[in-house]
Amino acid sequence: MQNKPLKVFIIAFLIFCMLCITAGALSKMGSTGKEVSDIQSVLKEWGYYSGSVDGIYGTATKNAVIAFQKKNGLAADGIVGKKTLEAMGLGGSQSFVSADYELLARIISAEARGESYLGQVAVGAVVLNRVEHPSFPDTVSGVVYQNGAFSCLYDGQFYEKIADSAYRAARDALNGIDPSGGAIYYYNPKKATSKWIFSRPVITTIGEHVFCN
User: From the CB of residue 66, how many other CB atoms can be counted at a distance below 10 Å?
Assistant: First the structure.
């Protein structure tokens, strides 16, 4: 019985050490696995990485990470820690999954085809702003498939091939970039026919789209 407190202490200490190791986990040279594959996929989508998405953290991946870190004002050490993961949209608290990313890219591609890259990100931001707004569904799929919300679901454009730029725009929107200024609506004044949408307070205009609340 005299050794019981000591055993409890040792077990608790070992658990604490394991938690510390897990919390400090990061991807760097020599790392392998799904997180490395996710990092490579993001870097490839954004044009930083041209190698294979093989889940192996080699020199090419490290160089791509350094280039990304420099571009985003992060410590350019080639190690993907918490801040770099969050900047990539892989380590944040948002509960978005790969299906949300794919769907967001699809709606951006369909709704903002022909718009500038900034305009594409803004359309994605509007979708995410709706997710956070109490007047709309609280999921990306709920917002996209809400009855009458997006005309592209009815004219066939939604089912066209997704543009590469739309994937990048979706990732930037998921990372919190919002050129729309917090808008929850947008419209093309040359095509819109609803008097109601013209009454909404305008925030900004990007390309052919007016963004409003």
Answer: 17
Query: At 186, which helix (H) or strand (E)?
Result: strand 185-187
What pLDDT score was predicted for residue 8?
56
Give exposure, 192-205, as e/b (b: 16+ Cβ within 10 Å).
Answer: eeeeeeeebeebee
Partners of 27 in beta bridges: 80
Q: Containing H/E element for 209?
A: strand 209-212
Token pair for 100? 């949300």
Strand-pair partners of 34? none
Give the rounded percent of residues in the chain with a pLDDT score beyond 70.
Answer: 85
* For the chain, the helix, strand and coil percentages under 3-state DSSP, each to the nearest 5: 50, 10, 40
* Dist. CA 80–CA 93, nearest whole Å: 17
The model's confidence at residue 6, banded by pLDDT at 50, 70 and 90, is low
Distances from the Cα of 24 to the Cα of 77, 96, 150, 181, angstroms: 16, 23, 43, 35
Rg value, the chain, Cα: 22
Q: Tokens standing for 200?
A: 């909404």
pLDDT at 179 over 80: yes
- Which tens digits make up the pLDDT trace of 155-168? 889 999 999 999 99
∠ CA 170-176-179, rounded to 5° = 80
Which residue type is seen at 104? L
